[in-house]
Structures are given as structure tokens and as C-alpha cells.
Amino acid sequence: MERVSLIMEALKELTEEMEGKALYIASETAAEMERYAKENKRWKHRTGDAEKNLKGSYDKSSDAISAEIRQDLYGATGEEYGWHLEHSHGGKYAILEETRNMHARNFFDGMQDALRQVIN
Fold first, then answer.
1. How many domains does the chain have?
2. What is the pTM of this model?
3. Are the beta carbons of 86 and 93 closer than 8 angstroms?
4. 36 lies in which domain range?
């Protein structure tokens, strides 16, 4: 029984270490996506609200750790303004999908490297 307890404790430690590394990767990816989107936006800087509300964030749920980029801005009508920037004019001002695609590989490679570090 003692051996099982030792194995369970070791698995718990590995899980906690991996979770910490994964949260770090997600937080760094979110910050990088926010920076990239703000630096590469395609619209003119008028009020600054659209740029200010480009948000990178990360989250931990019961079964996943993720990073995302979003436009968190609502216009005077109460409708999400970011949707219009992404979809109007044939996507001329879109930046969210490009940002996500540019950072996806680094995110997943980082997760894979973290797992290798934990199990080696």
C-alpha cells in the first residue's frame, strides 16, 4: 500500500508541475497575442478604444488550459464592435484570426516541450 501512495504522490507532483508550466505558457502566449494584435492592427487609430480593447487572456478549466485573443469592445448600440472590425469590408481590418494562427504553433510546441521536461 505504501508503494501505491508513493506513486500517487509522484503523479500529483508531476501534474502540479505540468499545470504550472502550462499556465505560464498560456499567460505568455496571451500577452504575446495581445502585443502582436495591437502592433499589427489594420484600422486607423481614431479614439484608441478598439486598440485598447484588444485583449489577450488565458484560462484554466477543469479539462483545459487555453490562451485567446479577443476584441472586447461594444459600440454605442450595445452590439459588439469588434465583430464589425473582423467581418466588415471583406475582413480588411481583421486581426484576431491572424493573431491566433501566428501563435498557435508556439503555444502547442511550448506545451509539448513542457511535458517533455516534466516526464524526463
1. 1
2. 0.86
3. yes
4. 1-119
